[in-house]
Design brief:
Blueprint: H1 2-26, H2 30-42, H3 48-61, H4 65-76, H5 92-108, H6 113-128, H7 132-145, H8 150-162, H9 166-179, H10 184-196, H11 200-213, H12 218-245, E1 249-256, E2 259-266, H13 277-285, E3 295-302, E4 310-315, H14 327-336, H15 338-356, H16 360-396, H17 402-411, H18 417-427
Parallel strand pairs: 2-3
Antiparallel strand pairs: 1-2, 3-4
Helix pairs in contact: 1-2, 1-3, 2-3, 3-4, 3-6, 4-6, 6-7, 7-8, 8-9, 9-10, 10-11, 11-12, 12-13, 14-15, 14-16, 15-16
Length: 428
């Protein structure tokens, strides 16, 4: 009994020391963590392999590469059984044989996460020392021991990317996300890889997931913005391509802030009138009502000539007529439903002022708002008009309409309601 009690006490002491080591490691006090993990091992912690791995990680943070490697290799070489207790201590030789057997078995059946972590972290040390082949070998063994452990596969994918092995890296990143769909940095890296492979929609999808889960990923946000910008520019270029191609020109549009840069290219011998070309551009861009775009710069290029032969800025909406103020519509809205008519009058008053300030799109928006408020007022009026009529129609279909019931109650205030209902039924 005393022996069992002593064994139980030492086990609890070891477990407490191990948990204390984890707490120190979480607070980045790695020196204290190493001391606590060593105490846990000395007290016979039942997951010795786990304690060695954690001590090795803390030693790595303190740049004790040799000590960290020694801890990882203690687990890798099978010098300790992963689940021994003080009652089951065996000689070093027999323990080594048992753990070696467990390592082989775990490759084919039961995952051994502690052993996988030891290989993974030794692989990191090998990579830091420039031994990339050794790092990949360690990570591959770690994956064999515990396929659901994503870190070795993720770092193998990164190393494959640096070596230009894109397909192998994509396979590893897919497996990483299948094992752990919450690994945000894997989405970021797979998005980068998909972009390099030409899979733009797949890259955008991965970057969006990464940003949604970690909004501090400025790299992913910038990449998303660049792709959206490129798509926007390509769409505008496609709009102008057909009309300008008829004039023997190719076109490329780039969007910067509130201004477009429209680059045209012509071959030697192809004529172009740069004075009328801006009107052609306006004819196709103005109907798009491009948000926040008020100007464009036309840059003309001649093939095999350095520099631009023409460069001039223009107002995009220059010459466009002022949108209608729709005063009559605003007055109708005021008559139909004043709560919507008042803002309609305010919007109508804004139309001309915004146009004179050069804000054509805002002026057009105010003009459309007047019509929208008038329609909303008509719908609201219809609703409030039809509601009582509908109720009256419903009430008339009842056996005893509410109005008749109220009149009877008023004529005979002292008669109980139950008697009134009875009289009605007798009358019927």
């Amino acid at each position: 009994m005393a022996r069992r009690l002593k064994t139980w006490y030492q086990q609890q002491k070891a477990a407490i020391a191990y948990r204390r080591g984890l707490s120190y490691a979480q607070k980045t006090d790695h020196a204290s963590a190493i001391t606590a993990f060593s105490e846990a091992l000395a007290s016979g912690y039942h997951r010795a392999g786990q304690a060695y791995v954690m001590r090795g990680i803390s030693r790595g943070h303190l740049k004790d590469t040799a000590g960290a490697r020694a801890d990882f290799e203690t687990v890798i070489q099978g010098e300790l059984s992963g689940d021994f207790t003080l009652e089951g201590l065996v000689s070093r030789e027999s323990a080594s044989k048992e753990c070696a057997s467990e390592a082989v078995t775990s490759k084919t059946s039961t995952p051994n996460r502690d052993l996988a972590k030891a290989y993974y972290h030794r692989g990191l040390l090998r990579q830091q020392s420039g031994n990339e082949a050794g790092a990949i070998a360690d990570w591959s063994v770690a994956i064999d021991h515990c396929p659901s452990y994503p870190e070795p596969r993720y770092h193998r994918a990164l190393l494959s990317l640096s070596q230009g092995q894109h397909r192998q890296a994509l396979v590893d990143l897919n497996e990483v996300l299948a094992a752990d769909p919450t690994l945000v940095r894997a989405y970021l890296q797979r998005g980068n890889l998909r972009y390099q492979l030409g899979d733009i929609p797949g890259a955008v999808a991965d970057w969006e997931i990464a940003v949604c889960n970690d909004f501090t990923l400025e790299d992913a946000k910038q990449k998303l913005a660049n792709v959206q910008q490129a798509n926007y520019d390509a769409q505008l270029s496609a709009v102008l391509q057909a009309p300008l191609q008829e004039k023997g020109l190719s076109v490329e549009v780039t969007h910067t802030g509130a201004q477009l840069e429209i680059h045209t290219h012509r071959e030697l011998g192809t004529g172009v009138n740069y004075y009328t070309l801006p009107d052609v551009i306006r004819e196709h861009l103005v109907p798009l009502h491009l948000a926040e775009v008020s100007r464009f710069t036309l840059v003309g290029h001649l093939a095999e000539v350095t520099g631009a032969e023409w460069q001039q800025s223009y107002e995009l909406y220059k010459g466009q007529p002022c949108p209608p103020s729709n005063w009559q519509t605003a007055f109708s809205a005021l008559v139909l439903f004043p709560p919507f008519g008042i803002p309609a009058f305010i919007q109508a008053a804004q139309v001309k002022r915004l146009y004179q300030q050069g804000q054509y799109l805002e002026s057009l928006s105010a003009s459309k708002a007047v019509k929208g408020l008038c329609i909303a007022g008509s719908v609201a009026l219809g609703f409030f008009t039809l509601l009582p009529l509908g109720y009256a129609a419903y009430d008339s279909m009842k056996e005893t309409p509410t109005l008749r019931l109220a009149e009877k109650a008023k004529g005979s205030p002292h008669r109980p309601y139950q008697q009134m209902f009875q009289d009605d039924s007798e009358m019927n």
